[in-house]
Write a structure and sequence with these properties.
With 440 residues, the protein is mostly beta strands. It contains two helices and 28 strands. Helix content is 2%, strand content 33%. It is elongated, with a radius of gyration of 37 Å.
Length: 440
């Protein structure tokens, strides 16, 4: 049991992306692990010993504000666990902003499951916001001597478990601090029944549940920053469960220059929407080495043994003279064919074709009556022969089909006026020759 918890509760779990995004990291913070004393309370509903409480933070670039968490018709908002989530039936809330500070001291209210955008208490004389416990320096007002001991009035209070896997004990740091710029304009949709006003999702206490999934839900405000403006880590959820959590979030961010961007867990980048794999948890792990075929930019962590096939660049066209049977990544511009080698010397690229390259000879030149045309080293195919004057006007055009490696064709030019002409030979296979013809 403890080994499975260790996989998650080693330390803050963070994943980062490149600097061009406003979203820098997603942090899954181990907040608390319940014990047998916490399970004695019956007022707030049964909290199974060993239940794990997590807090989810989204770290933004300094100056950015998180204004919305949502699911729409194209992007699913999903939070799930392999076991039911815990919700306190005494003073639990669906949203962190709605808690009164005094109620955090009662039984297991402080471990309730909820969503938020930064705020952890309802606005009153003092408003608190989430901050990772390791950064919280103003002490704690929950747990231990600050707790009422629950229905069994446990001496010394509840929430005193100091399990190292959960980080700083709640009796020393509660992960809440004040913030000067308090967001307003709160609104939500998709969590409460329109008629009864009851929240039956995993964030309400009306029923137990292990999954919230919606394409028509949101929580929003005017925009919240983190308590620490430099790290700018905004709390978005607190989740308590005995199981393993997963989530898929979509958010709206207001940048310091006034622009508004949407970041989604999966999909495709658009004019106002960017895909951010960080918003999907647990992260997809795989090959992160670009020198291997298995590499993908969607991977956020390396998976041992996932990089299996080193990339070998080359020409993969068997019809080319430099076909590379060992290549697994085709670069068409590397392919060379008789008469077509992308401005490279084909005799160096494919020396075996040095004496087999297509060629064009005409004789006599200058000529007076008849012109002999010799096309060599060309496979059987349709060829166009044309003669144009100095201005590019066609004087003679004939389409032929070669049927041997050395093709001879005779053209009567006796009717042409004396002067300079151009002889062109072209094929559908890319062969293109031009020679100057002098008519006596």
């Amino acid at each position: 049991m403890k080994n499975s918890i260790l996989l998650i509760f080693v330390m803050l779990i963070t994943f980062s992306v490149n600097a061009q995004n406003a979203v820098k990291k997603v942090i899954v913070e181990p907040y608390y692990i319940s014990d047998a004393s916490d399970a004695t309370d019956t007022t707030g509903s049964y909290l199974e010993p060993g239940s794990k409480t997590f807090r989810i933070y989204i770290q933004l670039k300094p100056g950015c504000r998180l204004s919305k968490i949502y699911g729409d018709e194209r992007h699913t908002l999903k939070i799930a666990s392999t076991a039911s989530f815990f919700n306190n039936t005494d003073y639990g809330k669906s949203f962190g902003k709605d808690f009164n500070k005094v109620n955090y001291k009662k039984n297991t209210v402080a471990l309730d499951t909820w969503l938020t955008i930064g705020q952890t208490t309802r606005k009153s004389s003092i408003t608190y916001f989430g901050i990772p416990k390791s950064q919280d320096t103003d002490g704690s007002f929950i747990g231990g001597i600050n707790n009422d001991g629950g229905s069994s009035e446990i001496p010394g209070g509840l929430l005193v478990n100091n399990e190292p896997l959960a980080g700083v004990p709640l009796t020393l740091a509660d992960g809440m601090d004040t913030l000067v710029n308090i967001p307003d304009q709160w609104s939500d949709n998709g969590f409460f029944d329109m008629v009864s006003g009851i929240d039956t999702t995993i964030f309400g206490s009306a029923r137990k549940g292990s999954e919230f999934e919606s394409n028509n839900a949101f929580l929003q405000n005017s925009g919240a920053t983190g308590v620490n403006p430099d790290s700018n880590q905004v709390l978005v959820a607190q989740l308590t469960t005995k199981g393993d959590i997963s989530f898929q979030l979509n958010i709206e961010v207001k940048e310091s220059n006034g622009s508004v961007w949407k970041y989604v867990a999966q999909g495709n980048d658009t004019l106002d929407e960017r895909v951010c794999p960080l918003l999907k948890y647990p992260p997809v792990c795989g090959c992160m080495d670009k020198n291997y075929l298995e590499y993908s930019s969607a991977f956020l962590c390396a998976k041992p043994g996932s990089c299996k096939t080193p990339i070998v660049f080359g020409c993969m066209d068997p019809a080319s003279c430099n076909y590379n049977p060992d290549a697994n990544y085709n670069v068409q511009s590397l392919c060379c064919y008789p008469g077509l080698c992308a401005d490279r010397d084909i005799s160096l690229v494919c020396p075996e074709l040095k004496d087999k390259q297509p060629g064009l000879k005409i004789y006599p030149n200058p000529a007076s009556d008849k012109l002999e045309i010799n096309i060599s080293n060309i496979e059987s195919e349709n060829v166009s022969i044309s003669i144009t004057n100095m201005f590019g006007v066609p004087i003679f055009v004939k389409n032929i089909r070669t049927d041997s490696d050395n093709y001879f064709h005779e053209v009567n030019i006796s009717s042409l006026m004396s002067g300079i002409y151009y002889l062109h030979v072209r094929s559908l296979n890319g062969i293109d020759f031009t020679k100057i013809l002098i008519k006596k």
